[in-house]
Protein: GMP synthase [glutamine-hydrolyzing]
Amino acid sequence: TILVLDFGSQYSHLLTRRLREFNIYAEMLPCTQKISELNWKPKGVILSGSPYSVYAPDAPHVDKDVFKLGVPVLGICYGMQELAWINGTEVSRGDKREYGPATLNVVDKESPLFKDVDHSKVWMSHGDKLYGLPEGFKVIATSENSPYCGIANEEKQIYGIQFHPEVTHSEKGKLLLRNFAVDICKATQNWSMKNFIDTEINRIRTLVGPDAEVIGAVSGGVDSTVAAKLMTEAIGDRFHAILVDNGVLRKDEAKNVKETLTKGLGINLTVVDASDEFLDKLKGVTDPEKKRKIIGNTFIHVFERVAAQIKPKNTDKEIEFLLQGTLYPDVIESISFKGPSQTIKTHHNVGGLLDNMKLKLIEPLRELFKDEVRELGEILGISHELVWRHPFPGPGIAIRVLGEVTREQVAIARAADHIYIEEIRKAGLYNKIAQAFACLLPVKSVGVMGDQRTYEQVIALRAIETSDFMTADWFCFEPAFLKKVSSRIVNEVDGVARVTYDITSKPPATVEWE
Ligand code: XMP
Structure:
């Protein structure tokens, strides 16, 4: 195991991710971790980047016992500046920030860290720089703007690099991390998704104990289904999944999820039809943010009510844990430093539940990225179709019916969406598109059908390509495909007289219309 000490860089989790890509397990802990309190010995330590400056009064610093472990250490960006700074070398603001690509020039051709990475493009992102070398160190690489691009104390096996090998913009960064972990630290390459499952199941069993019970919401999406399946493998029926039908789910969704989760995956699931309650509360509301709030709050309300009815079998005990399928990208603020101690905050998909219910949180997918969760899902026997489903927003069709959300409007949007997705699947395009859906616009437009004047609403279709949903481009369908979908929707969905295709990228638009 490699220990990654996190100083709060936005890239820190990519380090553990890259190491997993060549089967090395890395554990990430806050940079303030006391080494004497670790009950295992790492094969090597990586100090991450950070938004801080090492010389700032509130900057986080590493426990110096790291260097007494006698294992190799690699400092990345801030991590390197920290190595230098604690060894008495001046670090301060450079004349200009260095941000973007640079070419690596390896000076020490024998350095095991840079094996096969010379002359590659590396990604820089720093404002501070070293003004000298700490004692015992030498320069092993430079770049045009960084005379101290790579430094090493070979005797002690301490390395520092100014660039970020963990981002994909660093062409051979992955190889460099492999050189460090495998060749220098001699870490064992035995991590696999199968091992992860075993380890995680054991961890869950230990945490939950022999008789406590766990509750969790499922949505029919990949994250909550994978988390629920993992929990079921670990503790069986002591895990209670709840699906709340909020009245703004996709066509036949509650029925299909029930079928897949209970029959297909053996998950102990309760489905609650709360659609009237949700739609009642949404009456007259047109503001998108209000819709989101109402749906979020009503969800908490319903979930708590149902949870209170699910009593652990044969006991008067309460449910103790709440499962959440939070992934790494959902963890918006991983670590924040407040004075000497750090607090870890996580973003809750089901925000508010914990405060009210006094439940302890379990997040088995917290370290993983989406593609890893998909791989995990496939190994757990979840169908390919579910594992590769497009994302669906928590507020559901309520934010795809612009204007007031009524049962009738939801039914129109739902029917159009169903036809659209069906055609996308038939055309073999589903997996080429990151997300597709239909929106119902609250405007009427004139048409003519069978010699009759019509005056009905408009459906807008959206399909996007993206890797991270932060930026997105619209998908280029063949005209014949759009023709077919348009004609089916107008012919088959009552209340729609016109179909348009959304050709706006994100930014400036967002993926959803609301
Ligand atoms: P936007 O519209 O922000 O969407 O560009 C980016 C991605 O996030 C999804 N999305 C949501 N998911 N609750 C969710 O669980 C929400 O309130 C929400 N709003 C947007 C959206 O579907 C897209 O995948």
Q: What stands out?
A: Residues 355 and 361 are 11 Å apart (CA to CA). Residues 332-350 have pLDDT under 50 and may be disordered. The chain has 13 helices and 21 strands. The longest strand covers residues 435-449.
